[in-house]
Amino acid sequence: LDFMAKPNDAKLGGLPETSPGGWKHLCVIVDEGTRVALAVPSESTSTRDVVQALLQWCACYGVPSTLQMDMAGAHQSRELAMFLPMMGVSLRPGVPRRPQSQGLTERLIRDIKSSIHTAQSDRRGYSTPWWAAALVAIMVHNHSTLYDTHLSPHELATGAPSPGLVSLPACGDDSDDESEVADAEGAANTWLKLHEWVGSAYALLTQ
């Protein structure tokens, strides 16, 4: 488990961005075995936010046996020290000021940040809110096939076939140039529909 801070608005090249609930952080949890991930937007990095994220994880994937996280101030609170044993979770502290000890989560956070920057401007000049782009990145991660198992984290965690994120057109090896162009346009239109859906959801949440 680790937290990712909201990207700096100036670096994103846009106006200060608001989010539902005043979210400024993202609590990212990754399962070491299946690589399935969960991201919970939060206002801070307090013990309350850690507990809230863990409860959502437990509701989705069950209670973990071990939790690894760095030992920031909120992670050493008396409340968390009471909550984890109550849930039957043992704590495995990470090494302070050494992100390498949180390598799995840190790599995912790096990918999320890259997705946020990529989503700042599409071909029509529209941008996706940082938190929406981050959650879409988690969705893509959970439904992407892993190199070693040839299964997605979703499939490994749930045992159910992955429905996939979107239905992208397949490109055969013997396809001609015209079909390849059509496939590329179809893929772009599919992602454009996904962007519009996220934008509509954002509009509903902020009205």
TrEMBL record:
<protein>
    <recommendedName>
        <fullName>Integrase catalytic domain-containing protein</fullName>
    </recommendedName>
</protein>
<dbReference type="InterPro" id="IPR050951">
    <property type="entry name" value="Retrovirus_Pol_polyprotein"/>
</dbReference>
<dbReference type="InterPro" id="IPR001584">
    <property type="entry name" value="Integrase_cat-core"/>
</dbReference>
<feature type="domain" description="Integrase catalytic">
    <location>
        <begin position="3"/>
        <end position="169"/>
    </location>
</feature>
<dbReference type="GO" id="GO:0015074">
    <property type="term" value="P:DNA integration"/>
</dbReference>
<dbReference type="InterPro" id="IPR036397">
    <property type="entry name" value="RNaseH_sf"/>
</dbReference>
<dbReference type="GO" id="GO:0003676">
    <property type="term" value="F:nucleic acid binding"/>
</dbReference>
<dbReference type="Pfam" id="PF00665">
    <property type="entry name" value="rve"/>
</dbReference>
<dbReference type="InterPro" id="IPR012337">
    <property type="entry name" value="RNaseH-like_sf"/>
</dbReference>
